[in-house]
Amino acid sequence: MPDLLEFRSVDTYYGDLHVLKSVDYRIAEGEIVCLLGGNASGKSTTMKAIMGVVPPRRGEILFQGQPLAGVSVADRVRRGIAPVLEARRLFPRMTVYENLEMGAYTRQPGPELEKDLERVFTLFPVVKERLKQLAGTLSGGEQQMVAIGRALMTRPKLLCMDEPSMGLAPVLVEQVFDIVKMINRQGTTIFMVEQNANMALSIAHRAYVLQTGQVVLSGAAAELRQNDLIRQAYLGEMVVT
Ligand SMILES: Nc1ncnc2c1ncn2[C@@H]1O[C@H](COP(=O)(O)OP(=O)(O)OP(=O)(O)O)[C@@H](O)[C@H]1O
Ligand SMILES: [Mg+2]
Question: Candidates 14, 51, 191: which one to mutate for ligand 1, based on the most atoms within 8 Å of Cβ?
Answer without folding.
Answer: 14
